[in-house]
Write a structure and sequence with these properties.
Blueprint: H1 2-66, H2 75-109
Length: 110
């Protein structure tokens, strides 16, 4: 009879240990699933970012083909050259206007 009680105790102890191992295994599986979900999300994010980078490259190439030819290969420098050219042209126009006014004044004096 004592042997049966001892065997029952051993079985209960073994059962508790197995239940604990099952619980630990389930937690590991859940954690692994969470990690897989995170990795999957990161892969989707990387794919989305890669698409965005490709679109930006295409946009830069489109803008680059629109801009006048320049010695510079830097898009910012090309745009800055256009701004400078426009400012120079505006200054030339202003100078021409002043010169025309001077000519008109001289003509009126005659």
């Amino acid at each position: 009879m004592q042997q049966l009680v001892n065997d029952k105790t051993k079985l209960e102890t073994s059962n508790e240990e197995l239940q604990q191992q099952i619980q630990t295994l389930q937690e590991d599986v859940n954690q692994h699933s969470d990690l897989n979900l995170i990795v999957s999300n990161q892969q989707m994010n990387i794919a989305d970012l890669t698409d965005e980078v490709n679109k930006l490259r295409e946009t830069i190439n489109n803008v680059d083909t629109i801009l006048p030819s320049s010695k510079s290969t830097d898009l910012y420098e090309k745009i800055q050259e256009i701004i400078n050219d426009r400012q120079n042209l505006s200054q030339e126009i202003q100078n021409d206007k002043q010169q025309i006014e001077q000519f008109e004044n001289e003509i009126q004096k005659l």
